[in-house]
Write a structure and sequence with these properties.
By secondary structure, the protein is mainly alpha-helical. Helices cover about 35% and strands about 5% of the residues. Helix 2 (about 45-50) packs antiparallel against helix 3 (about 80-90) and helix 3 packs antiparallel against helix 4 (about 95-110). The termini are far apart.
C-alpha cells in the first residue's frame, strides 16, 4: 500500500546492535523500529518484565536459570528481580501487587534508567535565526540537509560536516 504513495519499502529485521548505524546512513529517510512497550497490557508485571529484561537497557534476560540481582545505588538494598517478577506474575491480591509494584517503582526510580529513543522520521530544521544551514533544492532529497538520530548526534554530525554554523 505504501508503494502506491511512492515509498520504496524494504523490510529488514535487524539486531538492535546494528540498526542505528544502518538507519543513520544518508541512504534512508525513514526507519521504523518495533519493540514492546512497557505498558503493553497495562499490568505491573508486563511493565517491569519488559523493562528488566530489555537488552536495550543493558539488562540480561530474566529467563536464565540463575536469579538476577540488582543493588540500588541510593539505598544499597539488594533486589532479587527474578523472584520479584515471579511473585508479581502470580500475585492475586491487590495488596501483594501494590507492594511489589511499589518495590519496583522505588528501584526503577533509584536506578534512573534511561532508554534512548531515536526518531528518524522527523526532519530537523533549525529555527534559531543565529544559526544557518546550507541552501536546499526544493522537491529533491537533500541528503546533507536532514539529519536524524538523537539531538546530540544530529548536531554533532552537522557541526563536524560544517553544515551548521553561527552567523556572524
Amino acid at each position: 500500500m505504501l508503494k502506491e504513495f511512492g515509498f520504496d519499502i524494504i523490510f529488514k529485521p535487524m539486531d538492535s546492535g546494528v540498526i542505528w548505524s544502518y538507519l543513520n546512513s544518508p541512504k534512508y529517510m525513514i526507519g521504523c523500529s518495533f519493540l514492546g512497550g512497557a505498558g503493553t497490557y497495562a499490568h505491573p508485571f508486563e511493565v517491569y518484565n519488559n523493562i528488566y529484561s530489555s537488552k536495550r537497557l543493558n539488562f540480561e534476560s530474566t529467563l536464565d536459570t540463575e536469579d538476577k540481582f540488582l543493588v540500588s545505588p541510593v539505598s544499597g538494598q539488594t533486589y532479587n528481580i527474578t523472584q520479584m517478577l515471579g511473585e508479581l506474575f502470580s500475585a492475586t491480591s491487590t495488596k501483594d501487587i501494590q507492594r511489589l509494584t511499589n518495590d519496583f517503582m522505588q528501584l526503577t526510580n533509584e536506578l534512573c534508567i534511561f532508554m534512548p529513543v531515536v526518531e528518524k522520521t522527523a526532519p530537523l530544521r533549525i529555527y534559531d535565526i543565529m544559526l544557518s544551514l546550507p541552501e536546499a533544492t526544493s522537491s529533491q532529497i537533500q541528503y546533507s540537509f536532514y539529519y536524524y538520530g538523537t539531538m546530540n548526534q544530529m548536531l554533532a554530525k552537522m557541526m563536524r560536516n560544517k553544515n551548521i554554523y553561527f552567523i556572524e
